[in-house]
Amino acid sequence: MAKELKELTKRSVNYSEWYNQLVVKADLAEQSDVRGCMVIKPYGYAIWEKIQRVLDDKFKETGVVNAYFPLLIPKSFLSREAEHVEGFAKECAVVTHYRLKTNESHDGVVVDPAAKLEEELIIRPTSETIIWNTYRNWIKSYRDLPVLCNQWCNVMRWEMRTRLFLRTSEFLWQEGHTAHATREEAEERARLMLRVYADVVENYLAVPVVQGVKSETERFAGALDTYTIEAMMQDGKALQSGTSHFLGQNFGRAFDVQFLNRENRPEYAWATSWGVSTRLMGALIMTHSDDNGLVLPPALAPTQVVVIPIWKTDEQLAAINAKAQGVVDGLRARGLSVKYDNDGNKRPGFKFADYELKGVPVRLVMGARDLENGTVEVMRRDTLEKVTVGLDGIEAYVEGLLKDIQRNIFEKARAFRDAHVYECDDYEDFKRRVKDGGFFLCHWDGSAETEARIKEETQATIRCVPFGYEQTPGIDMVSGRPAKCRVIIARAY
User: Fold this and answer.
1) What CA–CA distances, in Å, run from 476 to 18, 277, 459?
2) pTM surpassing 0.85?
3) What fold, for 305-405?
4) pLDDT the model gives residue 383
């Protein structure tokens, strides 16, 4: 494992390659034999399960319930909302037949040409169409509203350039779809779910985010407004980490979802949709990890504490086991996830490197001398600092240390982000600097032409109109026209 660590490319040498190697070496995921798809390995999936559990609880606190809708969507459904189908048409995987048959040489199978579907089916790229077709049967009166549904599922978007967790053809996510009686209620729901995402990403993933609204060009296909949380990775690039969309009555009209309002008049339902995906795993890795491997926030680490005994004789091991078991039991009684690794087939150095690579937040080491002195060596993964602590009160010490690690990695990431947010009103200066990363607060005239020019000339995009920064009047640095707002512009994943 020490050799594995030495082979991990340094972030300063090639950040992209460092990320790709780390995902594989830390046992999070690997490429599948299916083009563009990934295998999420047990350790990676354990982190995703924790993210999923937190999000699910937060959703339900706002009144959301879970449901499940079909994977396959009739092609005609996507045609009903023109902007929506245009946005996803190039990414759709299409099912055209429903049966295989043995080939003539009887050594394989072929598609049975007689089994062609009357209407092709689309593997869901997102579920607005199938869900709103269903909502038509559920919603007849204002008394049926709001409908607040979420589903945990997979989706397929035929990506040409893929990267584990960040962009794959198939990925896991949740997608919420709500229907409301009024515009105001729908808009508030869209903003509420954005706040839920920001809360989870900052307080559990320890990733600071900027909340804002997307430009018209960057909106979700079929939305009137798209709200976003944008995170900054250690290379200064932005990562869109969650979005919430106000869809207006577009899908209500497209699928004829009408209800009788309080005045007994028919009206189309108002809609939102919102989602986060396994892309959050990429945000977690790229925000905190270092040249030694993963750095995981304790709130989401599958194993929060690992206890490793060091012994020479069986008698020493038996004595350490007895003492260590009390520590393990005490930590577990506080609700912590603990692993006691007394596997004699692996050397201590291998274990140290392995758990460091996998980002276990706290490591306790107990040897024969520690047993005599009533002490234990404690190492925190975020700073790699080691201290020797007495066994009396070790449970409370470790619990406090985990909270400090959670706080420290968030503050470190926030300090990095804040140090790389720049106000900029000179386009030539912007073009020189943006390639090195960072969030640039720039005046924008609101035009698609200016936005397109920035993207073409710098490969940077308008990430959002941020909520957390003061808006001041000014002049667009590109067009020279009066600006409508300041936006965050950055290169992004």
Assistant:
1) 37, 34, 18
2) yes
3) Rossmann fold (3.40.50)
4) 98
